Protein 1
Amino acid sequence: MNKITNINKTILKEIYQKRPLNSKKYDYGLLLVIGGSEFYSGSPALSALAAFRSGVDMVRIMAPKRAADIIASFNPNMAAYPFGYFNRPLS
């Protein structure tokens, strides 16, 4: 028989404990979002914002150049790169 459990603040505090003061970036995850198009940039940006709210430390977004530029302007915490960025020659 299935048992229904009411979720309350006490249960959530047990599951989602406070992070240690000495925690640093990448201790709680790095997410890569790939998406967007030349005219649509909302989905990758919203996915990245949702990931931050869920506790991910760093989100990197790969998108077409125009979308990556728009996404980078949404929030300074979002690292947006155009497709091919990591394949370019180093100078």
Protein 2
Amino acid sequence: MRTNGRDSIMNRAPRWLIAFAVLGGLFVGLPWLAPLLMHWGWSAGGNAIYFAYSFVCHQLPERSYFLFGEKLTYGLSEIRTVWPEAANPMILRQFTGTPQMGWKVAWSDRMVSMYTSLWLTMIVGWILRRRLPTLPLWGLVLLALPMVVDGSTHLVSDVAGIGRGFRDANLWLTVLTANRLSPAFYAGDAWGSFNSLMRLVTGLLFGGGVAWFGVPYLSAFEIKAEPTAMPNPALVNLSPIRDISPKG
């Protein structure tokens, strides 16, 4: 009986890939479930997800996506109108949203792009592993470097205070571009700003690069881990052995 391409891929998929696809899908998808549960009124379930993901992400609302509200993202000044304690990042991160503004995805925009790209690239990379060229170590470093630079400069900038660092105004960028772009592009973290686009792009590059680099090694491990094939009993010669012992 002939099988279609999807069935063939599923039959050949190693156990680690199936486990990664399922568990990774849950890990990537649960942050999006939090705002959905909050929107449905089940705050206990939504807050449980927010709490669980608070250990892997800063969850700052001005660097997060919102669902079921007026906008996809909100600036710090807009958040301050409903959450005055915006100066302290440990308190600011606790803001999950309002019915009017919508509800925050349980991790930041960079985490969305980084982990989603890692998950998708790992699956697609395994499917295309025979056609996909191997990514050398220096290639992984190049793909990771933009996020290292962007993330570290954000970290240094936040030392001056949330909303008061050099990455909040990006005056250096206005000088480099002769201030030719919209003021909304340079300042803040709202969708379409330089900061939001950099977090999106650098997350995609890093997550995709890690998966691209890792697929060949995981595929090689899969081949080495395959058990030695046992002989097919149907092909073994089971004909009786002739008795050649001398007759008495």
Protein 3
Amino acid sequence: MQRNQITRRSFLKGLATVGVGAAGAQILAACAPAAAPAGGAAQASATTESSAAPAATDITIRVQTPPDVGQSAMPTKMGERYQADTGVEVVIEPVDYGQIETKSQTGFISNTNPDLLYGHHRWLFSNFLKGIYAPIDDMLASDAPADWDDVYPSIIAGNQLDGKNFSIPGVVHPGGNIAVMFNKDMLAEKGLPEPQAGWTLNDWEELARAAADESAGVFGMGFDGMNSFHYYSNTSRSFGAPDSTDGWVMNADGTALTYNTDTHREIANWFIKLMDDRVAPRMADAVDGGLFAAGLSATWATIVGGVTTAIAAVDGKFGIDAVLLPVGPQGRQGSCYSGNMHMMSSQSAHPEEAWDLMKLFSSGEAGVSMVLDGNLQPNGHKSAWIDVKVNEVNRMFGVTDVLLTAGIEPFPMPKNTRFTEANDVFRNEIDLIWEGQETFDGYASVIEERVNAVLDLDRPS
């Protein structure tokens, strides 16, 4: 295997450049390698120049992943390949998804973090500012992944902080409500047309109102989320003129919430009336497994991978298809990038080997594996989103490529990176409006004031 030119010295120099303190203590492996997922893809060709197995080394690369089979499938597969090709032991260390943010922080303090870490936009930037993740710009300049040019530019840009790269894309979401599923059987029984590409929010509302049946407990539409910044933003950005950011919930530099506006009042009036008229559900209407899979909603907005999940959950009980979230009243297509990423620990004792493995995680092949082996969404590679086998699983991956190629809008990240704190406030407060306990006119200014109190804080360090 061709080795790159990343040395421990150059790695530490890169950390110093961005003001990240580096620790040089050896990190010890903590558990045995995980078994390969059942039914995995066939063994890929070796990357070594010789057919002989490489000699074992005393190096161990530890990899943080969520514990579920889907999230760990690709890292396990690529880790096994890297170990077979190099003799470097790769250890998969599952961490409960809800604990990854804090585990990475406490592991940094105790210098016990794995070499490769997993994250989400929610805590990605704040953990970088704490020094937990290593910058990778020098590595991208001297030893970039072979197919790095295949990654959508808006995805690379959306993972940067102040122009610095420190992650590679894992699961990529073009929007929390970007794919609208529909129950083909229900629409046919009611004599209603199926949604078509290029439809509008007005088309969706007319269809949903015609499909809803309160006496049967059937709703016309629903959303995976309309309260978190990134889910709400996917929908709200469909409002306003195509060349405006009127539907953004935060200003472009992330210093202020911009919720108490005419555009967001329009959105609130629209959504509240749908719920009041029993066309869309409120929290109390939720059922185990979801209303759409239960056949109790004619349409439902979800992530692209949510269509895959619904197909499996419905299991042929009724026909499913999907289209992109419709454009808004002025023809604007809303999108909102969010996702997961892989990062290198700033304390890794083996940055060269960690980067080699990270490059495998970054590949287009890895993006395909994430769907075929892990039942997830692809990473940031265009070749994965348009892959034939990937689209046999869910054709919406290929459909969404149009948005990704054009460039999707960024994650609503506060400039001070305190997303989790600000989002918790926003989510709790906007739910009071959605549930009818407060009105937009009487409470939007309160939401702005309370969220902006968080956005006014300094960046964490």
Protein 4
Amino acid sequence: MKIKRIEFMEDVRDVSNDNIDVLVEKEDGSNYIVTVGTPQDLLEEMSQEKTNFIRPGTPMIIVKKLTKEIVTEAIQAYGEDDGYWLKLHHFADSIDIYVLNKLEAEYRKERKEFAILRGLEKLQDDISKLEKLDNLEKSKLVDRLDKLSDELFED
């Protein structure tokens, strides 16, 4: 992603302990707004809220210090790979839970298909050894085949 301009949208109070919104203008004229902060700012937030973790919220790009040089370096890195991470930080609050649920369902389906294929490969290995099996082992093999078939054709 080609970045044309980076602009702090507010004054930095403390370069080592603060967070700010930063405007990122791409060469095509479109803009992103991302939050950039320091580790000390996160520690202070936990202290003020009396928690041992940062509560879920808008993603933040973390830098050692809020200087133009360091923030620019970080944003350039987040802009790599067609701006994947920069886009994710900008749009994270806008992603509908439906999208995440759909991704999760697709992931589960892929995992199930992978498990079935793994089972079929193991079954294929066992079938190749079929002549050496006794009746109990053959029965177990048929049971495994039935189970895999049920998984394959359910839903």
